Predict the structure.
Amino acid sequence: RRDGRGMATKFYLPDGGETDIVAITIPVFFVRTARDFLDFLHARRPDPETGEMDMEKVGAFVAAHPETQAALQLILPTFVPPASYATCAYNSLHAFGLTNAGGETRFVRYRWEPEAGEQVLDDDEIAASPPDYLARELGDRLSRSPVVFTLRATVAEDDDPLDDPTVAWPETRAIVTLGRLELTELDPGAEGEGEIVVFDPTRVTDGIECSDDEILATRPRAYSVSVERRGAGPG
């Protein structure tokens, strides 16, 4: 499933359980805590009279949060519109501990890498593309051939922060290939007849553990509110 420029993947396990990977195209997050995220949302709330954001409030928030300033330096270059959902790399942002049969645990961050390579639009292509071009392009692409991603894991070293999604780990870290995902068609019936599918990055199976990342721990509660509102329907 894709919402905006994110990709959520649900694994249905042989024991009847589920585990999810929720990933997005930005390389890091821009705040460390749920309180900071709420403060940012309040700062960027549009003025009811003009409908525009108060950039002074947004600027004041950024100025008061050095970690946000550093994260934005990594995030802003990724805001160029992609050529396709199939040409984006998707990052889990959070760290997860993987434990092997011997009881050894190593923390990793997931990343889905597109087999087609990362591609973006140039200025002329951006100007000529309709608002729904990504959905249209994906349907056209799948009618010709599958869309393939490789799941890789960047392995943390001892001094890499596990609880701070605003910090990028060094590019020199070891990368392990975990698997391959092949998408063959769109599902027009998804979430039909009142069905609501929830993707929760803290829903993990045995052998995987969540890190002590406050943003990660907060996400299920936000999703619960989303489910309630989606289920209630309009009005």
Q: What stands out?
A: Residues 5 and 25 are 6 Å apart (CA to CA). The radius of gyration is 19 Å. The helical segments are 34-43, 55-63, 66-75, 123-128, 133-144, 214-232. The longest strand covers residues 105-114.
